[in-house]
Amino acid sequence: MSENRALQRANILANHILRSPPLPSSLSLSLAREVCLQYSPPELNESYGFDVKEMRRLLDGHNTEDRDWLYGLMMQSNLFNRKERGGKIFVSPDYNQTMEQQREITMKRIWYLLEKGVYRGWLTDSGPEAELKKLALLEVCGIYDHSLSIKLGVHFFLWGNAVKFFGTKRHHEKWLKNTEDYVVKGCFAMTELGHGSNVRGIETVTTYDPRTGEFVINTPCESAQKYWIGGAAKHATHTIVFSQLNINGTNQGVHAFIAQIRDEDGTICPNIRVADCGHKIGLNGVDNGRIWFDNLRISRENLLNSVADVSPDGEYVSAIKDPDQRFGAFMAPLTSGRVTIASSAIYSAKVGLAIALRYSLSRRAFSLTANGPEVLLLDYPSHQRRLLPLLAKTYAMSFAANDLKMIYVKRTPETNKAIHVVSSGLKAVLTWHNMHTLQECREAVGGQGVKTENLVGQLKGEFDVQTTFEGDNNVLMQQVSKALFAEYVSCKKRNKPFRGLGLEHMNSSRPVLPTQLSSSTLRCSQFQKNVFCLRERDLLERFTSEVAQLQGRGESRESSFLVNHELAEDLGKAFTEKAILQTILDAEAKLPAGSLKDVLGLVRSMYALISIEEDPSFLRYGYLSRDNVGDVRREVSKLCGEVRPHALALVTSFGIPDAFLGPIAFNWVEANAWSSV
Amino acid sequence: MSENRALQRANILANHILRSPPLPSSLSLSLAREVCLQYSPPELNESYGFDVKEMRRLLDGHNTEDRDWLYGLMMQSNLFNRKERGGKIFVSPDYNQTMEQQREITMKRIWYLLEKGVYRGWLTDSGPEAELKKLALLEVCGIYDHSLSIKLGVHFFLWGNAVKFFGTKRHHEKWLKNTEDYVVKGCFAMTELGHGSNVRGIETVTTYDPRTGEFVINTPCESAQKYWIGGAAKHATHTIVFSQLNINGTNQGVHAFIAQIRDEDGTICPNIRVADCGHKIGLNGVDNGRIWFDNLRISRENLLNSVADVSPDGEYVSAIKDPDQRFGAFMAPLTSGRVTIASSAIYSAKVGLAIALRYSLSRRAFSLTANGPEVLLLDYPSHQRRLLPLLAKTYAMSFAANDLKMIYVKRTPETNKAIHVVSSGLKAVLTWHNMHTLQECREAVGGQGVKTENLVGQLKGEFDVQTTFEGDNNVLMQQVSKALFAEYVSCKKRNKPFRGLGLEHMNSSRPVLPTQLSSSTLRCSQFQKNVFCLRERDLLERFTSEVAQLQGRGESRESSFLVNHELAEDLGKAFTEKAILQTILDAEAKLPAGSLKDVLGLVRSMYALISIEEDPSFLRYGYLSRDNVGDVRREVSKLCGEVRPHALALVTSFGIPDAFLGPIAFNWVEANAWSSV
């Protein structure tokens, strides 16, 4: 091959000489092209202004070595669709495979990682350290392929954690180790055809038969069929079933049970019907299915009874009397879903940006002068403006995702509310950010972005589901605002200071912003915090006052919320963006003076100012004047110019191995050469 | 099956009775659900406030019967993947097929439509009527599948039109009829690996050999390989080759040639190498390929010589001396690409909205009161706010697309500039709108949107390429602004009034807006026009003044444009949105008083006000005050409530047959029933 390449080079040179005769006039000079396009690696022209390894540790936050170990395992195996492009090795799924093929290869990859001990302790170990390691490894799986991490997530985080959190000792002993070893394959049947976000409305119904000591699970109608159940179509042997529990004619609300749906050979069990959800726009490695229960009988012990139980003679007992609170207790452990979704969305955005920015540092288009060289994409101010603010947001959100994970693994009953609110906001904002980033990256790399092997475009389909699963983003944002509303009303009513949810700033007086915004003011962290606090405070006050007004006129609270959905969304965003800003500020504050802190300061200012620039609330409600907003816009442009020299270092710091990026991130001329066909 | 269904119904009823015992307390009452969810068709609950057939004629604009004929042809054939879901027939491609399978079935569909005479006259007939018919039929093909319309588009609009417009009699006689009959299959090799948007920079080089009277086409290096060439990977027999033409050592710039690449049996010709572009995130029915030319010799007559020619002894002759103008003349006929892209983007948005809105009129979620019924999605103000403004935009843009087609088919040398500018703006705005609409529709239907059979999600991948092909949208928007700049400078310099491009309003004094905006003012067409004109005018003045200032400081015009890219994009958008508003105003004006005109007025006001609400320029540059903008926002909410009752009628008016929408647009409970498995 290297001989081939040498011949090719010689050919190119020969051709070049042949077609470059003396130029007779200035006219033809302007049209003639002296040389063919050559690939020049970004590393040749860009330098690192800070320690990228240190930055990577900061961004990944934890378990760097474990991550690298897993990257290595995947690169070593033939199962991960290794291929060579332009002299480099890449691993990523073959998305030209049918759904059926993608499902099988995903399952094989899971077996391989099992053999290598990747999941050791995922359910049998406990404590923050074990949980962080598990989260890190899951993130790496998601960087390879979202189907892989989702299929693992369903088995360990939904099925496994449901057993762990909703179940008690008898369930733990029977299932946790077996789940970790894939002796059983679990799925999680909550969503139904008729009810997704509104879990309380599910129609599956379970009764208790005291004569046999069994629960009887039934799907009373088509809308009650379990839907979207990952693993159900093909591989799962067992499932958690969410169902209304009807005891002696009284509906005790939604409860969770364990049911077997397939035997070891994969044969569907009696009284179970299963169908496929069919082909999807992404995640085709996950076998989503539908389940009907035909008066399926399960042992009384299969009720996951941490919150409530039914005695052998059929008496319902629960320590939590209020059914709303009981429902809440059931749902609380599911927060882990939002935590992992938020975090994996950011890793997906990182993959997109690493590819698009590396390409923009090697691809040229158009020249500015008649005979000048073509300009590197990232040297266009418009291209900087497209990608660099997204890069800054990804950094800030990366710290926010880490912070969320930390609160989550150290959770206590007291932190549940905060985790619920923050995870709802971050899940929505980070998944929308990912979709928006991938779309911009796909357009920024032009047609190359629609080739699946270049990933940026494909990731859109693979991650799209995140904006609606585990709660529609809009609904989640409204939940954030409702929680803030409740907090506000409660503090005001009891005349107590705000505590928690980052609302403490509301105890001080309203921040006053300077009328003139110089560059140094705009980059000052205190100013940025003040602006974000002012917005959050004002929107919260507006929202509560609007809702109160409507309630005063006899409207119900629910419909008052609905009418004010725009304010609710603005507030949810203001809350979440402030929380994000705080996490990058915290990260920055911990660093010693030096280049790392400096560049993080730049990135943080970019995050703060682009958030201001993009939110019309600042002008709409007059937090900033027109001149101020003009200053912000100019400062964003200036920051683009200052972040530009760090672009390569900033994406290198993501720590994603070359093999997990697309060919256009590297020598795309050679990757497309005839010799590679 | 109907027996099955009856049994099922009886079962449901029995189950329902079994689980509805007398309720003992108010607590259980709030949790119990009386009945299972039932599908109720939107038609049962919604009424049509206007003549939907008349509205459909207005929206399609032309060739309604021809469209219906083609819809019928596709529904009748087994080739179009007909399937039953919930008792209804649907046609849409099986996207679980591999790329190879999708390519073959697409080609079979093309043959079938050929047999049915669909393409009769597409190249051999001329004149506006023939062109409109062709455009209408292509649009219908695109509603079935974007791959189908793109593969036809490459053959007829790129290859065929290149022969027709760049070629002369000798080419017409030889190729046009044969193309229409698919005796030859054409492709269009313009883009190269190294150069896409920047066509002038292509590196393929052609020389002339006067001894043999042949051109010699060569790919001098890897970056010069032809890339993304639709049809090249598998089916095409011939191609247009864009190449630098080097005559006696002088580069005469980009010219177009005809070359054969495969023989009738599909064997690749000597001196040609072909490779595949591989799997894509959509359009896998199109066989995009790459081509290398190894000193391929073609007859002198294969130069498409409408603009320039080479005499047998090798002398270059052209009526157009300026190479820039010559290049422009070559590119002008390609405008048809932007016309068809803009129009097909709007039809795709229509499919998405028809599905999402019909679903939102049959899907319920959450109840507002403890025991109340769940609320229809479209009765949530937030859901209205998500979808109805997009519906209004789609209406307005639909008229704009029709208008563009009319100018295009009636084009004269004088209208070329206007067509270029308007088609650039509309292509960018309409394709972005489509992507945005599909994303919102996909999220609005929840998880159902990720099933490919429900189309909304799949269409995103299928149409994604539109934002960058035939010119990156951002580049096109900058071109619009550059053209407006040139117009402005030229009028000012010559002290002449503005004429054309809709800039005539700049000859009058700056419109003065009222300080208070009542509801009736906001809905007044003159007010809306004034606001849009004011924005365009002010942004144009700002842009030219900023560019002039920089030029005054010694910057080149090109780099002055680049630095002001944000203003350029704002201006491009202002220009295009004003052009769109004008077309829906024109359509409205032509209607007699009545319900059709009334509802179109509502839709037009929604379009105007949502455009104002979404563009921060109005506040940023002070065209409107904060109070004004608050009024606009409230009016949009009010309009949502007023458009809501028309939602079904408005999407029915799209005239897309049920079979071309997704199953969730109809009885999605039955479509998912066990009996359908």
Automatic annotation (TrEMBL), chains A, B:
Alphabetic keyword roster: FAD, Fatty acid metabolism, Flavoprotein, Lipid metabolism, Oxidoreductase, Peroxisome
Residues of the active site: 470
Reactions the enzyme catalyzes: a 2,3-saturated acyl-CoA + O2 = a (2E)-enoyl-CoA + H2O2
Every Acyl-CoA oxidase/dehydrogenase middle domain range: 187-295
A Pfam entry, by short name: Acyl-CoA_dh_M
Every Acyl-CoA oxidase C-alpha1 domain range: 334-484
Gene3D superfamilies: Butyryl-CoA Dehydrogenase, subunit A, domain 2, Butyryl-CoA Dehydrogenase, subunit A, domain 3
Residues annotated to bind FAD: 191, 230
Major subcellular location class: other
GO cellular component, one term: peroxisome
Molecular function as annotated in GO: acyl-CoA oxidase activity; FAD binding; fatty acid binding; flavin adenine dinucleotide binding
Known cofactor(s): FAD
N-terminal signal peptide: none
Residues annotated as domain Acyl-CoA oxidase C-terminal: 534-662
Compartment(s) of residence: Peroxisome
Gene Ontology BP, a term: fatty acid beta-oxidation using acyl-CoA oxidase
Family note: Belongs to the acyl-CoA oxidase family.
Name of this protein: Acyl-coenzyme A oxidase
Native species: Brassica napus (Rape)
